[in-house]
Design a protein that fits this description.
Length: 190
């Protein structure tokens, strides 16, 4: 089965104070780390962002029809244009997601019944709805929640047929997402 990759990069980065997608980590922008990881597992990489400067990091970019409505709007925009029935969705601020994480998510999705809409990574007691596989079957629910301005991802998940994909606590470093200067310093080992 082929997958689309969707990178969510449309946030304001208000807690960071600068465009975190373009902050260089190991010499390349964080968004590029995520795109490079996705390329080995997807037939396309879609950048969901209203900032056109992000679009060249993918095969194509999409803008959401509901600006300022958070990651749900980016997921809707990406799923609406994805060429595959299932999409690996990752936020641009998760540069440590690696092959083993994607392979485990894909394995779970491929072995699962068709009843499931989304496969969400869970590590160290925390779920990561922005490190997940979303099937096209969830698009109607995503759109309905956007229309009603019900934007919390946790609330979306309870409306879908959800499969949690458990990862051991020893792999928690792969799930670090970088939203603040403190998290950035931690990622850099400062």
């Amino acid at each position: 089965m082929s997958y689309s990759g969707i990178i969510l990069a449309g946030g304001k980065s208000s807690r960071m104070g600068q465009d975190k997608a373009l902050m260089e980590f190991d010499g390349i922008p964080m968004i590029q780390h995520v795109a490079d990881t996705l390329r080995d597992y997807t037939s396309e990489v879609i950048i969901a962002s209203n900032f056109l400067i992000h679009h060249p990091y993918g095969d194509r970019g999409v803008q959401d029809d509901s600006p300022h409505l958070g990651p749900l709007a980016g997921i809707e925009a990406g799923l609406s244009t994805a060429r595959n029935e299932a999409s690996i969705v990752i936020s641009c601020d998760a540069p440590f997601v690696n092959a083993s994480v994607l392979e485990r998510l894909i394995q779970e999705e491929q072995e699962a019944d068709d009843i499931y809409d989304v496969f969400v990574a869970v590590c160290d007691g925390r779920d990561y709805p922005l490190i997940a596989i979303y099937r096209e079957s969830c698009l109607k629910t995503v759109r309905r929640r956007l229309e009603k301005r019900q934007l919390r991802l946790g609330d979306l998940l309870v409306c879908l047929n959800l499969q949690f994909v458990m990862f051991p606590e020893s792999e928690s470093k792969y799930f670090l997402n970088i939203n603040t200067q403190e998290e950035w310093n931690q990622a850099l080992g400062k």
